[in-house]
Specification:
By secondary structure, this protein is an alpha/beta fold. The chain has a single domain, classed as Rossmann fold (3-Layer(aba) Sandwich).
Length: about 120
């Protein structure tokens, strides 16, 4: 798939991080929808099909695993790959859930080029 055809959803409550990530991805001509509120992001996931969803793990309304479970319940994105980004050390139970759901787990901070590579690798696999 041509990168220009890719459509990603980025969910993070840090506007600065969303700006940086969006800048990186749009530089590579990837279409990006952004949201800082997981409930609104779920509305987007119910309405539109995405090639990849990138979500922060720690958010006020719900954590990234709960968000991912709800996305998996949507008809349009039930099979969409999801990358969870976090600065938090996940406990064994959380890591088991991440593995069970087939989520990709990435620790923050991450260099922009490394994150871009992870995004592309995740989409291709």
């Amino acid at each position: 798939m041509d990168q220009k055809e890719l459509k990603l959803l980025v969910l993070d409550d840090s506007k600065e991080f969303v700006f940086l990530l969006t800048s990186l991805l749009t530089f590579h001509e990837i279409h990006v929808e952004t949201e800082s509120n997981p409930l609104k992001a779920l509305d987007l996931a119910e309405a539109e099909k995405f090639d990849l969803i990138i979500s922060d793990y720690m958010m006020d309304e719900m954590d990234g695993i709960s968000f991912s479970e709800k996305v998996r319940g949507t008809s349009k994105n039930s099979e969409t790959r999801i990358i969870l980004l976090t600065a938090k050390h996940l406990e064994n139970e959380e890591l088991s859930k991440v593995s069970e759901m087939g989520l990709v787990y990435v620790n923050k901070p991450i260099l922009p080029n490394d994150l871009y590579k992870k995004v592309m690798d995740t989409i291709r696999n």
